[in-house]
Structure formats: C-alpha cells, structure tokens
C-alpha cells in the first residue's frame, strides 16, 4: 500500500525529525552539555562509517529527507534539527530544545549504529526510566509502532542490543530532555558488512524510510 494511503486522520500533526550527527565537525563538539539526568556529555559526536567510508551522518540525512517527503504526502507538518549535510551543529541539547519548541506530536531521531562487527539489526531507543509523562506510555507506544513497521518491512531486530528491537536507556540526552514522545532509531549496524550493504543501497533506504513513515503515521493515528 502506498504511504500516502497508509494512514488517515494524521493531517496537521507535527513531527520533529532529527538526522543524527553533523555534516562537519570541529573541536567544539567535545564541549560538555547537560544529559538531562544531572550529568553531562559531549555536545555531539562524529558518528560512524561503513568499512567503505560511507558516513552515518549522510545516511541519516538522506533517510530523513525521504521520511519528510512521505509525511508531507500525508499532510503531516515537519521540522528538522539541521537543514544540510555539510555544516556544524546543533548540539544534542539544542536539538532537544528545538524539538520541544515546536510542540510536536512525535520526535524521531534517525541514526545508524557503530556496534560490534558480528552484530546485526535495528533497535528503537526510548528514555528509561522515564522523566515525564510523555516519556512513559506515549514514547513507548511510538517505539513499538516503529519496531513493528521495521519488522514488517523485513528488517531484523538487533542481535546485540535491547530486546525484540526495543531498547530503553538513560544515556541519550535528546531523549532525556524531550517533553514530547521521542525515540531514536538505530536503523542498522554500519560496522557489520551485511547491514552496511543494506544501509548503503538507495533502494533499501527508500524502503526503510517508508517503514519509518508508516511507524510514525501509525502512532499518530492512535492520537486521533
């Protein structure tokens, strides 16, 4: 079923999309910012690459543009944390503030992992233990909707992190600082040759973006 017909009653909803990492980096990314739980962490990290040198930040950017296009077909309004793939910033705490400022119905951050070489598969991260009501039930429902659509499109849940494609964690500032339902999707493991082949294929990225769009739309339908 085409994405444009995959959901109803979602037009006018707002989704904040975060293509993880930066297109460029300098020494400023090691500046410490709040992690949302009383400690600090680096402003940003460089992300990972495949063995062939395909950068995670470019995968994230390409995939988010596809997701934005799919959501636009459904009448969903979107905002992005960065507007290009060749510049520095913003920091993780700034991205969370940007997301909260648009009062979105959902916040979705797209990444690809740099996990152990033998590990495969995606995992959907959410803040745990939750710090507010949005991080409790709503974020977990968003994570489950996303997991289900990624499985439905043929993606394998992570063999090395989380359980059944879901991973509650306390160390991601963007999720900890979210005042609205937020997840971070690690679409696969770039350090695994099989996953890398999937993530670097443009046709597969289109299929993954469709699945993410369906996951978001499925969650938004729950709000209708």
From TrEMBL:
Organism field: Mycolicibacterium fluoranthenivorans
UniProtKB keywords: Hydrolase
GO-annotated biological processes: peptidoglycan catabolic process
Gene3D superfamilies: Zn-dependent exopeptidases (3.40.630.40)
Single GO MF descriptor: N-acetylmuramoyl-L-alanine amidase activity
PANTHER family on file: N-ACETYLMURAMOYL-L-ALANINE AMIDASE, N-ACETYLMURAMOYL-L-ALANINE AMIDASE AMIC
Superkingdom of the source species: Bacteria
Domain called MurNAc-LAA: residue spans: 96-217
Record-given protein name: Rv3717 family N-acetylmuramoyl-L-alanine amidase
Pfam name, any one: Amidase_3
Gene Ontology CC: one annotated term: outer membrane-bounded periplasmic space
Region forming the signal peptide: none
UniProt key word Hydrolase: yes
